[in-house]
Design goal:
The structure holds 3 protein chains of 3 kinds. By secondary structure, chain A is an alpha/beta fold. Chain A has helices at 16-29, 47-52, 71-84, 96-109, 218-228, 236-240, 271-277, 294-297, 306-323; strands at 3-6, 9-10, 13-14, 34-40, 57-62, 89-93, 112-117, 119-123, 126-133, 138-144, 150-154, 171-173, 185-191, 204-208, 231-234, 261-265, 282-287, 300-303. In chain A, the strands form 4 sheets. A 7-stranded parallel sheet of chain A has the order 7-11-6-1-4-5-12, sandwiched between helices. A 5-stranded parallel sheet of chain A has the order 15-14-16-17-18. The chains are: A alpha/beta, B alpha+beta, C alpha/beta.
Chain lengths: 324, 383, 262
Amino acid sequence: MSVWVLVAHDRGTIRKITYELLGKARDLAQDGRVSALLLGSGVEGLSPDLAARGATEVMLVDDPRLAGYTTEGYAAAVAHVAAESPPALLLIGSTAQGRDLAPRLAVRLGAAIVTDCQSLALQNEALMATRPMFTRKAIGTVRLLPGRLWIAVVLPGVFPVPPKHERRPEVRRIVLPPDARIRTRMLETRSIERETVPLAEAEVIVSGGRGLRGPEHFALLDALARALGAGVGSSRPPVDSGWVPHDYEIGQTGKTVSPQVYIACGISGAPQHLAGMSGSRFIIAINKDPNAPIFQLADLGVVGDLFEILPRLTEAVKRQKSAG
Amino acid sequence: MEFELTEEHRLIQATVREFAAKEILPASADLDHHPRYPEEIIAKAAALGLMGLIVPEAYGGAGMDGLANAIAQEELARASAGVQVIISVNNSLVCDPILRFGTEEQKRRYLPRLARGEWLGCYCLTEPAAGSDAMSLATRAEWRNGEWILNGRKIFVTNGAEADLCIVYARSEATSGARGLSAFIVEKTFPGIQVGKVEKKLGIKCSSTVEILLDDCRVPASNLLGQRGEGGVIALATLDGGRIGIAAQAVGIARACLEECTAYATQRQQFGRPIRTFQATQWALADMATRIEASRLLMYRAAWLRDRGERCTAEAAVAKLIASETAMWAAHRAVQVFGGYGYIQDYPLERYFRDAKITEIYEGTSEILRLVIARGVLGSKGT
Amino acid sequence: MNIIVCLKQVPDTEAPIRIRPDGSGIEGTGLNLVMNYYDEHATEAALQLRERFSGTVTAVSAGPERAREALRQALAMGADEAVLIQDSALDGADHLQIARVLAAFIRPRRPDVVVCGKLSTDDNAAIVGPALAELLDLPQATAIAKLEVADDGTRAVVHRELEGALEVLEVPLPALLTVERSLNEPRYPSLPGIMKAKRKEIAVVDLTGLGLSAAEVGSPAAVLERLEPPPARSPGVQVNGADPDAAVGAIIAFLSERAKVL
């Protein structure tokens, strides 16, 4: 089976989700080809990394019109490449761009599509995907029927990053047709600079809720996150109160994350928040209310004052890191 | 028989539920711990149309029926019984009698202001010596030089501190009892009316309860509500609607108890398992649910009867009696389910417990309601 | 300005759901259904555009009878017209089929703007919006957090929140937009609005009425095979944080020994 992975990259760096997808693509392709579909302008230099993580070939569409992401530019490029010999399966990471592009592509390519995948398997010629549904109160298994191209949009953090093997990339260059129509225009991309790790990439996430009592106390989370090399998120109330911007929010109306460890500080655990984080491998909760629902989920629950615990924890993590 | 709410009623329910959850619930504990008139919430409620639910569109209201009002009041009380009573009084005890008994001129002058929330209304019936025996009230209305002069002291007036307009019941005729009473629409700016003592209460703390003093208060002839001597009829007809509003308040409080207990029973672990798995807890929740259902259906029935223009004095009394006793009983059980957490202010149970009590007292104590119901059952044989 | 907003009625996310014993879906009885959260923001965006440019807002939903309530809510919020696309052929339809049906309704109306929520909270798929844009051959901007339409109504500048960045995008109109919750604060349907909406008709059309054949709608290519409760998490350990140093010790031990991130 041939599997394509759409490469997610940003400012010259390949996003971790791409490697996760390449690893899964190799499992699914078995002896078939795993092609990394690399779109951009002046991005050929990313090819060796893609090969090292499992791409048997890199299909490169290098064109100034693809310098920034646009739905129509990317859709035209993928459709053009697929016109020749479409793959059986196209994997796309569940990023803002991936979610924007995938359904449009599905229509253009006559594909079957499933989003938010957290597992993928082949069974009797069909692709079986599991995905959280109903605010993670249920896990659905979706079958994509055979007979057409499949597109699976995969959540970050659910598949492991494959180990690196030095391999020479086999690069195939494809030219974007001159008539590709791009109606939207990117005016500006403002990067949001944070010292902490982006949530989609973070192995550990430190997250704060109403219990932090005010915006100034997010500094406690930042300090712990820096010590741990973690990302910082929040539940909904701090966003609604304007303490942190909306891109911090984890939950039904924010991001879905699946880190190795999720440290919930002063978060009660409303269903709406659990929807975004209950897929985490380990959950640690710190809350002063012993009856907070978050403790039902926590692998380690600490009933206590986060204002006393967090600064001490940060210091302890620093000590541990410098010792180890 | 049809036991399903219409699409509009469900939409009203969903809308008020969301409004209450978003705008009232977050403030409800603080409004109880630091009592104050919730001006911003009332302004938002007015923008939504809640202050004139039952006022027809022609007079600037939402144009809804009494059943819709009852549905809305339950949702408001689920979030805060104190906020709800402010809104309920404005609708049931002020807009309703003006709508039923007012002249066209009175309706045009007062209803749009009340419905838009520019003015707040209150209802002045009770006096120090006339509580359950309201028809024995002593406030006097004298016709002098083409206007009414009111003298007397009203107590336990909900909304009285903030109200711009008071429906005042006074004795205008020489006849004793109900037939000697008339109702007046008294604007707060009329000379001779002022707010007296402000009461401190056990519950529903964000609504004011005050004394209203009438000292040679001058009321124009055009502000007589209904006919001379019709005051008793107006007061009692108004109370039928008011009691449905209190029944809705009680159902809302009882539902708050049940919902909090249900959530808590799932979270709270004792002896290694959630307390919802214990039969004692299950029975408490089942009994609460049963009584709430019964109360709500009786409240709906009374509202439905009243909407059809039928007499519903006994039915409204039945609804208020069972609903208020359910609220008090449910609050009592709910505090017990929460144990120690039910007794402290970090959780809302002790507030429900305090708020519930008033529903057994105002707009007809449980004892008076039983009297009203007995009259309905026994007819003249009871007296 | 001719504005179309697409809606869905979904289970209330704050309420529990019951999965049918055979895993075929969730139990419908006793389920509290509400307008999809993001669709409220979409409706608000549509109403704001109409308030600025005048014109009409048409709310449309393709779904079962219960979708009527979402449409009624849109009317109560101020939409001018509501249409329910209802057909037994849509039972078990996948997202792309729904998109094709909506496209058939929307296309002849030649809207200036089509607004959708960024996803629906029942299945979280986020497929219908962009698929609809492709079917209608409209440019798209998804999950927008800010919308500024030029005075002449020919183009819009939108903000999108990406991972670690904010994108400012210019989109010519007509276009399809899907909206993020930070875009606006949806109004409540006012109670007088509900009473007015009561008097408005919700038009119902089936596939024949849209001029669609069963073949054009196609068969589902993505099928929900089963629904299961999420795997139970094994009970955790609770420590008393009254002694913060002991609590910190427990967390450090957990991070290094069990989670192996230290």
